[in-house]
Design a protein that fits this description.
317 residues, alpha+beta, six-stranded antiparallel sheet, two-stranded antiparallel sheet, 9 helices, 16% strand
Length: 317
């Protein structure tokens, strides 16, 4: 009697196992659809397979950069602001004169020292025009208010710069020698609130999104074009994610008959600096396109059908 009971239970187990295996086998041959039913195979509903995981949103990350550069100096650096890691060209510790790129620090340093106080209307106008229009007179006034050379001493100390050298004669801010590696550190220092302090950081970063004027607008020391370069090399997906704060520096120096061009961009995720010197004959537009090209090459994932990155014809590049 006991043997018969055991035999019956074994048969029932085999039959139930077969019933459970059929849907699994069917699912294996039906393109990932599962047959759901109650009490057997018949009368089930097809459930679609889970949708594929969408690709990560585009950002900037270290990647090979190829530039057929016609000039004396070209370098770049990229900081991942989440990890603090800096990558870039092999010569990213070499320096260039900062020109107007350093105005972002001059403004931040002045505002941080105000603390919770409000600047006068005249000072606030200087703050705004020094960033938006790259106004030299406004920047000089704020630099004088901060004590001149101590403004740069604080930059080096507070932002932990290692390659930056102050112009020895009169500590002229434009002639400060800075590397791309230090430039992205300065960008991070502005972005994390160290430079401008808790009250003014959002204001400074916002002003840096409002830089205006194109390459053709460089007309004087008070009205200069500054909205070009890295910003032009980024896809809309990056620019739409969060505002990109920028500050470029650019001067044709007659001392060496070279354009000194620097581009700086800061976002929540990264900060990028591109710095160069090249012959007068190539014009400012050449440097603007170099900056854009570097940014485009660092976009990841690289452009596909769903990611449109502006193409940057750069002539000699």
């Amino acid at each position: 009697m006991r043997h018969r009971v055991i035999m019956v239970l074994a048969i029932v187990t085999v039959l139930l196992g077969g019933v459970m295996l059929v849907p699994a086998a069917y699912a294996r041959f039906s393109g990932g659809e599962v047959l759901a039913s109650i009490g057997g195979i018949g009368g089930g509903e097809k459930v679609p397979a889970p949708a594929p995981t969408p690709p990560p949103p585009p950002t900037l990350a270290n990647a090979p950069v190829s530039v057929n550069f016609d000039g004396k100096f070209f370098s770049w650096a990229l900081m991942d602001r989440k990890t603090g890691k800096i990558s870039g060209a092999k010569n990213m510790t070499s320096t260039n004169s900062t020109e107007s790129m350093i105005k972002a620090w001059i403004v931040s340093d002045y505002l941080r020292q105000l603390g919770d106080k409000e600047p006068s209307d005249a000072r606030k106008q200087q703050v705004i025009t020094a960033i938006r229009d790259s106004n030299d007179k406004s920047a000089e006034a704020l630099y004088n208010a901060g004590g001149r050379k101590p403004v740069l001493d604080r930059l080096i100390k507070m932002c932990k710069l290692t390659d930056t050298k102050i112009e020895p004669t009169n500590a002229k801010w434009a002639y400060t020698q800075m590397s791309p590696r230090d430039a992205v550190r300065m960008g991070d220092c502005i972005g994390d609130g160290t430079a401008a302090g808790p009250k003014w950081t959002k204001f400074v970063l916002s002003e840096m999104t409002k830089v205006r004027g194109g390459v053709e607008d460089q007309k004087s020391t008070t009205v200069q074009g500054g909205r070009w370069g890295i910003i032009d090399g980024l896809p809309d997906e990056i620019k739409d994610k969060n505002p990109v704060s920028i500050k470029n520096g650019f001067t044709m120096l007659w001392a060496d008959v070279q354009w000194h061009v620097n581009c700086l961009a800061v976002t929540d995720d990264w900060t990028l600096a591109v710095m160069m010197r090249y012959p007068q004959k190539d014009g400012l537009e050449y440097g603007a396109k170099v900056c854009a090209s570097v940014a485009t090459q660092l976009v990841t994932p690289q452009p596909g059908a769903a990611l449109k990155v502006p193409q940057q014809p750069v002539g000699k590049l």
